[in-house]
Every structure is written in C-alpha cells, then in structure tokens.
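Please go through this protein, sequence plus structure tokens, and consider how the sequence yields the tokens. Keep your notes short.
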Amino acid sequence: MTRTALFDAIRPFAPDKRFTPDHVAAIDALADAFGMGRVGNGNALSKAVALIREFEGCKLTAYPDPGSGGDPWTIGWGATGAGISKGVVWTQAQADARLLMDVATFANAVTKLVGDALTTDNQSAAMTSLAYNVGVANFGSSTLLRKHKAGDYAGAAAEFARWNKASGKVMAGLTRRRAAEAALYQVKA
C-alpha cells in the first residue's frame, strides 16, 4: 500500500472530504511511525494489510463470528468492537479505512510486545496478521512471541500452525492463513 492509497482510504472521513494541514501531518506521522515509505510499498504495514485482506475477505453488512456463530459481530475486513452489531452496514471506503486504522493499532501493539528483539519487516507483518486474528492478549502470551524474542526464528515459525482452531475446531481457512503467515515470517528480506 502506498501513502496515496492510505490518504484515499481516510479521505471520506475528513470534513468536506478535505484534509487540513494538521490532518496531513497526523497521517504522515502515523505512516512514518509504522515504516510506511514515502515511495514504494515494501514495508511491514502494507504486507500485513495485504495478508489480512487475502484471508479476511470483506463484508459490508455485519455478521456473527463464523467460528462461534455469535459474538463478536464482525464487519468489513474482520473488524469487531463497539458499534458493530446486527444490521450495521458500511461502505467500502469505511471498511478500507477501518482496516488501515486497525492494522496500524495491531502493528503498534506487536512492536511494543516484540520490544528490541531483532525483527524483519516480514516477521513483523506476519505477527501483526496473527495478532489481528487472535487478539493482542493471546499473541502477547504466545510461545511464538517468546521464541521470536529469544531468537528462535525456526521455532517461532513452527508455532503459527498451532493457531488454526476456532471454538476448539480445526478450521481449514485458519490452517491456510497460518501457513501463509509462517511462510512470510521466514522470508529473508
């Protein structure tokens, strides 16, 4: 994802669909904080967004969690939380903007949990995708994170496969997603 795409996704939420200089500075600061280059798209945040988009899919009408058949209600690219309930409908622009904001939040949480452990963009993107799906608390207490911080990258990569269940049941989609995350985690770049 480029900065232009980020600005385009957020623009519908700006007053009169126009950014003030303060808006531009805030969005640029957020993009800078997460390593979103001013040119190109080879950074951790854009890779995490792409991976999440591939596996979450996008639905513009709220639906019950597929794993539990109920809570939490979900919309867009897997968004949950306050204001998301039965009957809620979003536009594509709302779904895209929420994804960018949520992924930035999860990436920040992953960065804090990883601390000063050596981490590549690909590792960060893979762990952000996992945290987006399983939650920051679960990721924070995971063996995967512990192994990553200890420098056991092969061991950490193997841990992705353990996160393929919903309500105790193995899910084919989660198995594919974890394999993709583990593959990205292991890419040396």
About this structure: Residues 3-186 form a domain with the Lysozyme fold (CATH 1.10.530.40). The chain has one domain: 3-186. The longest strand covers residues 59-63.
